[in-house]
Design a protein that fits this description.
Length: about 725
Amino acid sequence: MVNEARFNFGERRAVFRSQNNDAVAFNITGTAFIGRELFSPVVRTETRYEWTDSLNVVMGTHTFKFGGDVAFVRIPSAVFELNFAGLFNFGGLSAGTLNSAFTTLGAPDFTPVQQYGLGFPGSYIQGFGNPVSRISNKPLAWFAQDSWKVRPNLTLNYGIRYDIELTEQIRPTPFTDPLSSITLSASDIQAAQDVLNVRQGFPRDTNNFAPRVAVAWDPWNDQKTVIRAAIGIFYDHPLLAVAFNSDIADAAQQQQSTLLPGSPAQNSLLNAVQVFQGTVCVPGSATPGICPAGVFTPGVAVGTQYQFGRQRFNDQTFPGFGQLLPFTLPVANDFVYAYANQGNFTVERQLTKNMSLSASYIYVGAHHLPLPRDVNEVRQDLLVENFRRFANRGPNSFSESTLANLFPTTGAGGAPGGTFTNSITGETFTTIIPGFIVVGPRGKVISPFAANFFRPSGSNYFLVQALTGLPPAAFNAQLAGTLRTPTTVIAPFGDVNAQSSIGNSNYNAMNIDLKRRMANNFTFLASYTWAHSIDESSDLQTLLKPMNNRNVRLDRSDSLFDQRHRFVFSAVVMSPAEWRHSDSGWYRFLADFSLAPIFEASSGRPFNILSGVDANYDLQATNERPSVGANGVLFAPTGPPQDATLGRNRGITHRFMSLDARLTRAIHFNERVRLDLIAEGFNLFNRFNEAAASPFFPDVNTFNQRAPGGRYYSRPTASFDPRQFQFGLKLSF
């Protein structure tokens, strides 16, 4: 009987700061990303105390082992300034956006670079608020297992493990919107989260029991053949960073402000173009030459500091909730920890005295994988029907469906009870709430911005009160007859990108190894793997949300890390030791040389092809894919809301092939002192190996290369290293 106890203490400090600390960021699609890194700075301190104890007991043919561990993880301070630098996106611009006459004349659209030159960004995102969070966690686990030697040629291993994490339960933060003056208590924020079944921090998952069993068998008891098999359940520990993000990006401690394009005029509603061109005029302040006295920008709170020349706001002065409410990064209330059913079966046979062959099958079926999903998605059906009430037809694009600038706010038609002529149908409409609700022949029509795009969380009461003075109750009273249902809970949420646990993956692999142990100054390993990995999401990144949040199955495809074929050959060849004392000068010269080559050949890896166009009207263009024409050419869908027809991860890089080698010459001065002369070469044939390709469909079409299985190659954007040599000396004494 042996007992082993351990105690561990560790402290980790992580500091990451962008080299462009004061610069705003510009994302010019397909061309460049300029400025500060958006996930910077990160300053984190983490302490960990851990106790582990295990007891080993040998009883006859059984070897029992029992144990457990407990850890206390504490992050007393972490700084995360998500998007605090500010980001302008340039993804291309329709010519008709600047002047509708350009569309009639057939003018070509502007490229992202031209759009940047025009100073007309497609959107602007900036984070505001308190970047500091504190969080802790207590992982606990215990296990019991037995290794039973059933017979001399048969061993059975079986056991069970239990894991639980006593996660910190995070309470929401109260907040007052500086623009509308609407105040939300911690209870109000909690009620808004409850409507969407989300929370800050992880819930506690208490049923994580993981049984396992394995067997090793020598069927002929000749020590030349062994069969191994194992199966078990293995639980994952979710990243503490997810809980941290949910604490920070909650629309109360931090606000993620998103602005859309608009007019650069100082008195237009706050938009991305004004921020880029420096025409933001804060109420109560004047900037000679730009903001004359009495001219101000609606949608900007008093006290906001716009930083002229830096094209951004002071990140500690939030301008207020505007047309788009902030996105948040919570965790689903029903989140459970991921687990995998893992199994393998291996047969290994000795071929000769020094050589063996093994063949293995590996299966991993993972369930409840973290998958980011917008649980507050736009109701596209109501958005389209709302537009139809106004225009007597469906929208031709998402931007048209927003009804931007079609409800008058000035003149006789811009007053309550005033009438105006519908610019699309020529019909007469009556204003109910200027800029927000009108009524016509087909009923009441509401501004999608005021309706918060018909999201489940409720209307954008902040925008309405800021621009009209109407409190939520008064606005609710006018919603009867519109497609927007009134709510008693006031939620400051736009996209609610919740970490859910609905993902699944499936991995199957066959591995064949031919091994020769070192004998006669020579050893090698030849390995071939065929594998296939399928999932709905390969990462925790927000940008990898499904294309359709209501139909995750549309994203089930080959994983980003799927690699169908991989062959590796490695060897070591050494000069015979006796050559060092040979009478032949040639043998003595070649003595103490060793050569170690490594050759690898593998399939390319998938990547997702993107359209950059919000074809399904969910206010998210970063996860949209193109559709496939009858001739296989990709195109961005237009017209009514629709999902693209191209599957996820249908792009693929070209195959990889490389030969590396290491040549070593040992010089022995005496029995205790030796000098090694080392020469290493990588990618000796200087082959171009593609590391990444452009994910944008115009580049895919231009490159015009198809891969088998309906896949597409694209313009390479990165490569692995070219041929390289390095030399070294190693002195042993």
